[in-house]
Amino acid sequence: MGRVLTQIKVFPTEVGVDLVRLQDDVRKGLPEGATIAKAEEEPIAFGLVALVLTISMIEKEGIVEEVEKALASTANVGEIQTVAISRC
After folding, report:
1. What is the C-alpha to C-alpha distance for residues 75 and 12, in angstroms, rounded to an integer?
2. Which of 59, 66, 82 is nearest to 7 (CA)?
3. Is the N end or the C end of the chain the one with fewer CB atoms within 10 Å?
């Protein structure tokens, strides 16, 4: 079975959110078969910084939606934006 790489921007609910802790919470909430391959911070505006996560996941029907749902339901995540999806 192949793998899929998905790049997702995770916007915190507010400026003061600890991004290291947020990344750890996201990692713990990911469905089985999905892991964070790379994490970067991207300044947005007025002190808000988004996490740009590259998530590696098994290639199966509906896995991207499962990951998006897990991210959106994580505490202190205000919004998510899927930027890119590719096979690896």
Report:
1. 9
2. 82
3. N
The amino acid sitting at 55 is I
25's CB contacts (< 8 A; 6+ apart) are 74, 75, 76
Q: Residues of 16-45 as b/e, b for ≥16 C-beta within 10 angstroms?
A: ebeeeebbeebeebbeebbebeebeeeeee
The 3-class SS string of 32-72 reads: CCEEEEEEEEEEEECCEEEEEEEEEEECCCCHHHHHHHHHH
Predicted TM-score of the model (pTM) = 0.92
Partners of 46 in beta bridges: none
Residues of the chain with pLDDT under 70: none
